[in-house]
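Tip: read the tokens left to right.
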């Protein structure tokens, strides 16, 4: 995510396997984490090798299932807790394709910092391989607020994080720091910062099943006035740790980020909301995009009913994002509210459906594309939030909710400039032509 490489930077993985073993902070379970090379385009994927079938959990925002005191990912009937420390190291080393085999529900906490993961991944010898890295570039400033956490995001040539935290404790108080994130800066100024907690919270957290593996050896513990059982590595170790947590959570973007993020009272919940806002608002390059020629090879629609211009991403056959550039030259504007052009709502739905059809067709072998067609069977919970007019870019995001046999259910959202304009639940089927 960090650095100043051009948008056509090659993807990266590791040359060899490395492993770490220890106790998880929240579950208290012992696990072994092994970093393995992955093929171009795989992305970063956790694999629960202790479970039947070794289910995969993509390290993506769509996998987030919990954000209380840590970030939890769930997919395919499996979950993994407290991924942020590990993923921060993955992020700053710009590893695009990586398999993370894990023998339990949580990576080890080790000393409570990010350094052991960074050192293990560096020892695995990061290397370039085929494919173009995904990159998100923020070109216009915007703000995100989630609970007590707030963020301002603006353009920057690399990745800069400015973080402010405030706790009513004499050792912490108000702390701020700004970091231009590179691997070297991370290793030197951020990675050694440890997680922290307060004695007065311990009983309540343990009642929730959290911090079962926490000790003064793997966390900074504070009583009412001081630090217990350890010495701070920096007076502002706390804000450095919170800054690194942001890096770990933003790794779930699935690409490298160019932006200046100003975070005030960041939290895992806020960081995830920030990541989702960046995906909506930032310009994206790289990765496996599909242009109009690829689209024409998959779906049968043609002018004037072809309402997809580009597919931006297809994620693990679970999620797809496509765009439609709305221009005044669209034939429907001639008769729909002449003099006050508004895109018909049914065509917004149709654009979403065509993008969803591309997702469903991704389950079909390429050689069978010409013999299959997608029919939509039902629409539920359709809502139109605001009009779409000439000059807008309609961004359609479809997520696969259920797929059985030849029938699927999808959740669709359409955005313009980061604002929802339409949503719907859709059911569709693959049938023979």
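Filled-in amino acids:
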């Amino acid at each position: 995510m960090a650095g100043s490489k051009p948008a056509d930077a090659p993807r990266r993985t590791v040359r060899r396997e490395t492993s770490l073993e220890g106790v998880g902070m929240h579950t208290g379970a012992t696990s072994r984490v092994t970093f393995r090379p992955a093929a171009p385009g795989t992305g970063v994927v956790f694999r629960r090798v202790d479970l039947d079938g070794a289910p995969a959990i993509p390290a993506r925002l769509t996998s987030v299932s919990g954000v209380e005191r840590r970030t939890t990912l769930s997919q395919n009937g499996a979950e993994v807790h407290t991924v942020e420390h590990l993923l921060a190291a993955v992020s700053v080393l710009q590893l695009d394709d990586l398999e993370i085999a894990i023998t339990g529900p949580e990576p080890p906490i080790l000393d409570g910092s990010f350094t052991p993961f960074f050192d293990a991944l560096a020892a695995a010898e990061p290397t370039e391989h085929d494919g173009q890295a995904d990159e998100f570039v923020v070109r216009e400033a915007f703000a995100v607020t989630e609970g007590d956490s707030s963020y301002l995001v603006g353009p920057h040539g690399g990745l800069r994080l400015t973080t402010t935290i405030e706790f009513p404790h004499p050792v912490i108080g108000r702390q701020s720091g700004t970091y231009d994130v590179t691997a070297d800066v991370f290793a030197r100024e951020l990675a050694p910062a440890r997680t922290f907690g307060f004695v007065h919270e311990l009983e309540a957290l343990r009642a929730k099943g959290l911090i079962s593996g926490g000790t003064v050896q793997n966390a900074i513990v504070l009583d009412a006035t001081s630090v217990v059982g350890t010495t701070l590595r920096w007076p502002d170790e706390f804000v450095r740790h919170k800054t690194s947590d942001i890096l770990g959570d933003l790794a779930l973007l699935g690409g490298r980020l160019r932006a200046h993020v100003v975070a005030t009272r960041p939290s895992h919940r806020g960081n995830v909301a920030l990541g989702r806002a960046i995906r909506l608002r930032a310009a994206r390059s790289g990765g496996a995009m599909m242009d109009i020629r690829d689209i024409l090879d998959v779906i049968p629609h043609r002018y004037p009913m072809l309402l997809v211009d580009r597919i931006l991403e297809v994620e693990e056959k679970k999620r797809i994002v496509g765009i439609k550039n709305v221009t005044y030259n669209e034939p429907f504007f001639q008769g729909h509210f002449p003099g006050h052009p508004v895109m018909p709502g049914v065509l917004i739905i149709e654009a979403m459906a065509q993008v969803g059809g591309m997702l469903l067709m991704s389950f079909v072998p390429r050689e069978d594309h010409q013999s299959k067609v997608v029919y939509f069977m039902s629409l539920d919970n359709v809502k139109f939030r605001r009009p779409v007019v000439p000059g807008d870019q309609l961004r359609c995001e479809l997520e696969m909710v259920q797929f059985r046999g030849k029938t699927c259910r999808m959740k669709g959202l359409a955005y313009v400039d980061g604002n929802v304009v339409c949503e719907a639940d859709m059911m569709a089927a693959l049938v023979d032509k």
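Residues 1-7 have pLDDT under 50 and may be disordered. The longest helix spans residues 345-361.
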